[in-house]
Automatic annotation (TrEMBL):
<feature type="domain" description="AMP-dependent synthetase/ligase">
    <location>
        <begin position="52"/>
        <end position="433"/>
    </location>
</feature>
<dbReference type="InterPro" id="IPR000873">
    <property type="entry name" value="AMP-dep_synth/lig_dom"/>
</dbReference>
<dbReference type="Pfam" id="PF13193">
    <property type="entry name" value="AMP-binding_C"/>
</dbReference>
<keyword id="KW-0443">Lipid metabolism</keyword>
<dbReference type="GO" id="GO:0006631">
    <property type="term" value="P:fatty acid metabolic process"/>
</dbReference>
<comment type="similarity">
    <text>Belongs to the ATP-dependent AMP-binding enzyme family.</text>
</comment>
<dbReference type="InterPro" id="IPR042099">
    <property type="entry name" value="ANL_N_sf"/>
</dbReference>
<dbReference type="InterPro" id="IPR020845">
    <property type="entry name" value="AMP-binding_CS"/>
</dbReference>
<keyword id="KW-0436">Ligase</keyword>
<dbReference type="Pfam" id="PF00501">
    <property type="entry name" value="AMP-binding"/>
</dbReference>
<dbReference type="GO" id="GO:0005737">
    <property type="term" value="C:cytoplasm"/>
</dbReference>
<dbReference type="InterPro" id="IPR025110">
    <property type="entry name" value="AMP-bd_C"/>
</dbReference>
<dbReference type="GO" id="GO:0031956">
    <property type="term" value="F:medium-chain fatty acid-CoA ligase activity"/>
</dbReference>
<feature type="domain" description="AMP-binding enzyme C-terminal">
    <location>
        <begin position="484"/>
        <end position="559"/>
    </location>
</feature>
<protein>
    <submittedName>
        <fullName>Acyl-CoA synthetase family member 3</fullName>
    </submittedName>
</protein>
<dbReference type="InterPro" id="IPR045851">
    <property type="entry name" value="AMP-bd_C_sf"/>
</dbReference>
Amino acid sequence: MLYVSVAAVWRSSHSCVHCRSGIWSLGDVARRAFTSSVLRTRQEVSPVFSKALDYGEKVAIIDHSGEHSYSSLYNTSRSLAGHISQALACESGDLQGKRISFLCANDASYTVAQWAAWMCGGMAVPLYRKHPPAELEYIISDSQSSLLLAGQPYGEALEPLAQKLGLPCLHLPPTSSLDSLQAAEPPAQPTKTLSDWAERPAMLVYTSGTTGRPKGVLHTHSTLQAMVQGLVSEWGWSRDDVILHTLPLHHVHGIVNKLLCPLWVGATCIMLPDFDAKKVWERLLSSKTPVVSVFMAVPTIYSKLIQHYEQHFTTPRVQDFIRAVCKEKIRLMVSGSAALPQPVLRRWKEITSHVLLERYGMTEIGMALSNPLNGPRIPGAVGTPLPGVEVCIVMNDTTIVRSTNKETQVIAGLEGRAGELMVRGSSVFQKYWNRPQETAESFTEDGWFKTGDTATYKDGVYWIMGRTSVDIIKSGGYKISALEVERHLVAHPDITDVAVIGARDATWGQKVVAVVQLQKGKTLTLPELKAWAREHMAPYTIPMDLIVVKDMPRNQMGKVNKKDLLHQFFPS
Ligand SMILES: *[C@@H]1O[C@H](CO)[C@@H](O)[C@H](O)[C@H]1NC(C)=O
Ligand SMILES: *[C@@H]1O[C@H](CO)[C@@H](O)[C@H](O)[C@H]1NC(C)=O
């Protein structure tokens, strides 16, 4: 079997490493190319708060209550860590990974709760304010949390759960007076008393549960740091950056990409309490310092911003102003967590002049693949591996392509074939909490995490076809990617949102079903859709069934739960 080196992936100018070319046997590949020393070197690991002392009075977070410097966040977190140790009668000041569940608004109190959990050696378990009590209880119980932290105004939500489960619950002061925590006896400098950060559990993030009950994904301080460092270098983060944060803080996208990355480099994060299209536009366009330079969101947010734009920014003068401000002041706009529809990408470019940077990640692996910061971003593709990440595609137990940040090998003749995407590297999670069997099943023997996503490699980049379980539709002998069908359908002028599912069918095995949301006042029949689709799509991918919904049921991260949709419309 031969691997052919097809692409030297030249990234930012400072990481030019020569790629060997030529033809290798599998053994050579395994020995030489992919046991890259970059991936194996033990890095100095320390939590993000250890950097705060260097950044001192620089503004870390701006929220509804005002500005919070690195120094004040650090001091407040340290005081809270003291309260936590006291509440748990932990004299050593090292909770050794005990879980601390916290429920906070999108403001500085979130960071204080997270850092405090880390400073006393605990593991942070972020809860989400929009989860119903039963979901909160599930996560608190499943994680076996020892203590709850309630930011304002979530004391009332957590107190009954704390009583029911017999757990201590600490209430944080209002974010405007977080400093009042400093009355407590502060513990010693955490970076001096605690060590072995690398292997220390840092965070349990619960998967969104689109397949089965949510699982706690355990990241250590070293896997978190690997995620942060990969993004910091590849996306060119610096302390001059200012990011506008509008995402929920119980997923990697909101926690790592948008909060830990800026705090790692000493940048400033402006946090809005919630997503609100009007407020986001105001802040993006504001000349008030600090001026926003980075924005990241999920596709539904970009859609909503476009809707707001179409309704309110109708004069050419305003439109020119918007394009000019976005072009001059903003250096990076990223989309992720769900597939980005092409019309959204195109319209966003017209409005702001920015080609959204698409990337691929998962709770278990952080970010794995990304389009380049500089250089061509290919619409619909997710680029190549981030530093420290290896990926491969496995088809019928054969690895058909493998890549690192620097190079790629494909088996000759098999480029463009689909298979399961697998990921390995320093940012991959340690385990599912209390689920040894699911952990074991999710890795191959040689340590690749099986993402459960189907992907292909072509034209020098990776393409995600969707979840193997729900997005790969097997119909009449074809394997159809639901995401590709969606990409076509969303270009229909009357369709504003679409989810494609595969329903069981006696004749075809599965049939392609389009669940669509239409423009206000429009109607669409299946024959009309089919007539339109024949002009645009391969015949076997054309939907056989059409379901029109008023609102597409997307979650906060812009994802549709396709198993629920199937269950709703095709109860078996
Ligand atoms: C934080 O604590 C340090 C040491 O006690 C002190 O020098 C510094 O002024 C404090 N920072 C703030 C913002 O209160
Ligand atoms: C993979 O395996 C399946 C089932 O054994 C077979 O039908 C298919 O042709 C194989 N694909 C390739 C490219 O070998």
